[in-house]
Amino acid sequence: MNTMSNFKDTNSIPDGYRALNTSELQELLQDEEKMDQIVRLNEKFQELQVDREILLTSNRSLAEESLARRPRLNNGKLQLAEKYRDLTNLATACWEKQSRLEADIQKHSLQTAQNLLQEDVARAEEQSEDKPAPIPDRPKEWNPRAPPEFVRDVMGSSAGAGSGEFHVYRHLRRREYQRQDFLDKMTEKQKMDLDYLDKVSDNQQAADERTAKRRKKREKLKQKKLMAKKAKQDANKGEDSEKSSSSSEEDDQEREAEDDAEAPSFVMGKR
User: Distance of alpha carbon 42 from its chain centroid, rounded?
Assistant: First the structure.
């Protein structure tokens, strides 16, 4: 049992301290400086120290970054608070306008608006009936200035003309061109009016001819109907005369037969 326990203890203790006995290990444990030195020289402790320094540096960098961003965060908070304040103001204004709109809708319904419009229309009609409607005159057609009876100071565009006379000549030439264009347009308009009148007269004549032809056709049909009706009436009259003659002959024969018959000895229904 002792050998087994010694074997387990030696396996649990690091390789450098397996050779030490129990008393030496106890002394070593009681010496804090040596234990601190042993712990500091341990590889795992050194790795932990390195990790601790890395974490400290990363935490320091994160803290510096957060400190650098703190003013921006504070500005964002202030802006957010202002936006929220503006939003609340807009919401209150919207609710007030909506309540005012609902009140106006209830006050001025569609029926009320229709009645007001009808009253305005009736008032406008009354005013229009009382006030005469202005009828604008027909716009006057543009007429060029009549040519002068006697032309003085006849000049050309370049022969013997100075700088001032050339402008006068150009003005006269432009006015003459306008007059000639107006005369051409009036001639074309008169020609179109005459063509239109001729076309209207031709259409009227063709319409009169069609109307006369249809009237003649209707009169022929009317004469045919009258002739057929007259022939039918004559035929009906002949048949009526024949029927009346035959009925008179039959009545005479019946009367003779009644006279030849004996009188009855009694009559039914009498006492």
Answer: 86
